[in-house]
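Researcher: Going back to the complex we discussed earlier. I've cleaned up the inputs and rechecked each line, so this should be the final set. Can you rerun the prediction on the complete assembly and write out the structure?
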Amino acid sequence: MSNSLKRLLIGRPLHNEEMVREKLPKWKAMSIFSSDPLSSIGYGPEQIVLILTVPWAIAYGYAWMVAVAIIALLGIVTLSYTQVAQANPGGGGSYSVAKKNLGETAALTAAAALFVDYILTVAVSISSGTDAIVSAFPVLSDYRMSLNLFVLFGILMLINLRGVRESSNAFVFPTYAFIFGILALVASGFYHISSSNSVIIPQTSLERQPLDWTLLYLVLRAFASGCSSMTGVEAISNGVPMFKPPEVRNAQLTTYWMSSILVVMFSGITLLILHNHLVPVKNVTMLSQLAEATFGRSSMYYFIQFATMLVLYLAANTAYNGLPPLLSLLARDRYMPRYLSARGDRLTFHNGIILLSIIAAVFITIFHGNTEHLISLYALGVFLSFTIAQAGMVVHWRREKKTGWVPRAFLNGLGAVVTGIVVVIIMVAKFLYGAWLILLVIPLLIYMFKRINRHYEDIRAQLALPPDQITSSAEGSNIVIVPVAGVTRVVASTLNYAKKISERIVAVFVATDEESARKVKEKWQSWNPGVRLIVLYSPHRAVTAPLFRFIEKVERKKGPDDYITILIPEFETKEWWHRLLHNQTGFLLRTLLVFRKNVVVTVVPYRLEK
Amino acid sequence: MSNSLKRLLIGRPLHNEEMVREKLPKWKAMSIFSSDPLSSIGYGPEQIVLILTVPWAIAYGYAWMVAVAIIALLGIVTLSYTQVAQANPGGGGSYSVAKKNLGETAALTAAAALFVDYILTVAVSISSGTDAIVSAFPVLSDYRMSLNLFVLFGILMLINLRGVRESSNAFVFPTYAFIFGILALVASGFYHISSSNSVIIPQTSLERQPLDWTLLYLVLRAFASGCSSMTGVEAISNGVPMFKPPEVRNAQLTTYWMSSILVVMFSGITLLILHNHLVPVKNVTMLSQLAEATFGRSSMYYFIQFATMLVLYLAANTAYNGLPPLLSLLARDRYMPRYLSARGDRLTFHNGIILLSIIAAVFITIFHGNTEHLISLYALGVFLSFTIAQAGMVVHWRREKKTGWVPRAFLNGLGAVVTGIVVVIIMVAKFLYGAWLILLVIPLLIYMFKRINRHYEDIRAQLALPPDQITSSAEGSNIVIVPVAGVTRVVASTLNYAKKISERIVAVFVATDEESARKVKEKWQSWNPGVRLIVLYSPHRAVTAPLFRFIEKVERKKGPDDYITILIPEFETKEWWHRLLHNQTGFLLRTLLVFRKNVVVTVVPYRLEK
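Model: Rerun complete. Updated structure for the full complex:
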């Protein structure tokens, strides 16, 4: 039954040959890879303004400067990553680049940083997708958490367990709907401004307090939060093999397109927020305020809110395209449990998908789906992995030394330095707001990766067959000990099996009083099964301890190549509650004896009919 | 480590020969057996007055009539039970009497009724013991529940797991202290009254409304609650063998003594409550009010509260002397799981003791230690078992027909009729207040007893060896299937064992892709362990399903006397978390294959050193 439920939810098992390396046209690849950065328009500009409008220091006027800085940073990161795509046409992100060029620790640092950030991508995107729809329908605000968890487990996890082919088709619409909606909003907003004869940015939006240290800290925090808009820019360069040929060229073009659209949308929305002097309102996002100010509560307003919600949920899906393959790479390199690298029924990395869903759910639950708090943890990991990847690229160009490598190395070097500075800014500006947690988690993850790796190496060394391994010693025999609780059919059946596997068999009965000892001896003699019975008298009424001592005695007397097999007669009851009515000595013995060399514990089951 | 903790808490294991059937002198037996009925002075009179002082109908004046009825009832029950002691010198209460004289269903009804009431004895006594100490120290009222559960698990359960010998000595003091305290309270109260020239019962206490149906119902409820004072009267007749010879005579004398003391204490306290016109006060018991009115907050007051607390906790202990042996009788008759009849390390019925503690804890927790609510459930079971026992005695006397049997049978008959009427009164008066629950639980318990019995009978029939049982067939061999995951030392060690137990061995490898199939085949050939390897290709990447189908194929081809042994190579990791890094295919296979006839699953453990 659980099996047919599984089939209903995720579909029939797929044959190995059904794995197709789908080749995506640019317009489709764009919708899959760019939902993450583009959707950050849903919260990025808002986060900047949010921090700059804290009551005790109106620093609203610095917002445009922060925005400009972010756009410049985006330019540098975009150019750097088109070079990553070129140098790694086989795909694989910061982890692969770092492993190839910088060594294990850098690679694991990138992996840990990405691990944290993919999970936060899911948490942040789902939370703010729900914010978008709650803004349109305030009545939903009580169901925020249920909605978040339903989207996470009921939609994203299931779709991804079914497999990536379905997901790519279902997800083309929201991205373009969102781009259309936001561009319409920006165009319409600017048209209003130009037709109403007001200046595009009114003077009041540009007024600003003189910059002191407190204010600088605030501006840096706004910048750090705004950087969350840039997460996901690297996704295209990780997925080069999924493009139609010429893969690298197409991937680069798509990156340029994506960044251009992002710049237009980001600057347009930020300008309009400043122009309209929006301030934070509880349960209503600024994008919703802006759409309402521009279109009223028209169908266009609802279209924008729905599209925002969908594209944000889709952005969460990006992490599902990113983390499970990364985990499978880590698992193949033995830094994570091996089963994360196995493809399931549907050819997906199902264990990684489930792991990601569970950890994201933990984050959403702890932070009660509060986007602002989650964003405080966000972006640090991404920029750390940016820095590592760019640094790796510098090493790469230097080593290859192909023609024209110097400007390339310089561009990636610039990228590394700039993103490195951003990492420091984010660390300082957000330290108290949550970055400390990430700075704690990343080293712990690296430690975990290394411990797991060491364990697998230990196992490999211990399990490897030396070339001169003698396949088996002809010496030695098998001594069978059958603990019995009386003279029953179960015992008869067990002795029958015992005779098949050995000629040295002994039955053992532990008597807790003399009466029962006498009785069983008599019964055994009259039955006479051809096997010797040893009765152990246990005046303290313990059963396992005397048996255990007996086994140890046999162990001491046996030859070095002899095995001891403990055959436990056990009947399997028909109803689960029947188990409560019987002793579980077999289970106990197995647990106690599992660590002894050359001792094998076997339960010989006897099936009861009723 | 868990073992030394156990030793520290309950002591060293005891040898069978250390079981002494202790013979108790009357004064000591009294302290053990009578704490239950005597301690009910702590709540019994209060419960009567509590019900008769509900705001909308002051029926205070009926209290003394209720008290007189209870005293009369006590007289009848006492006399009836001295006869039970005489007829059953071997001990054993209502269950044994009913089984011998009335048959299975009556016996199980008595057992179910006692089961419920022993548990309620623990819950009620602990709760009102805590009430007594909370009355003296109101600051403890917030810790009521913690106190209840600590007394239950930390004191009663542990002491009883250690064994009854220790308990009997520790528990002599509280009973006599309590008797002394209450008698002093009564004497002092009466001295006050006589010296202050007031009439013993002032007229106002005797005024009463005319009796209508509502009031009658109230009076009956008061009577039903007051009957809780009588629980435990039967304890002595269950424990006749524990008395010094002449056992029966001594048990009877002790019963008379106990009842006399109970009558004096019960009537004295009830009269004083009426005389002082006490009404219920939150968090203060009436006994505490009375002691305070009589002695002030003197050391005598605190002595009485402490003694009351101790004797009530001791009364809870009575259930530990009663229920585990009853459960062991039921288990020996196969109405309860067999292990309830086994004596543990310390010669106690440890499983019954733990079971009683857990169920009592559930009741205390559900009712938040509210004595009044718990008492609503109480007494019904006891009187039901009284009735059954007395009815059984009538049958007993009729059958024996010894000289003078007619008056004896008449006395027990009277007891049966009177307690039967009380059962009906309790049922009606308390139905809505909780008796419905007990009326539901008792039949359910009886059903459970019978189901368990049927299961054991089924098992016995299925396990019994027919006299002509052929001990074992010489025919048939053992086919060994070794599922392997590669070529490792674990596999080598498993094959080594396989060769000890059979000559028909086959290794099976499930390949999820063609690459790994080829690799393993090559490795196997170059290793050449002398066992054939079959590679199953599983294009859907499932591992257990193809293996399972293979086993089924072998099963169809094997002879009827052949066994199939699945040997699973498994390495045992050293740290618990290492397990998370490996598949648990062995466990899965064992679970799936346990029900197949002549298929045995064996895990051959290989121990890792690090």
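Model: Worth noting: DSSP finds 25 helices and five strands in chain B.
Researcher: Good, that matches what I expected from the previous run.
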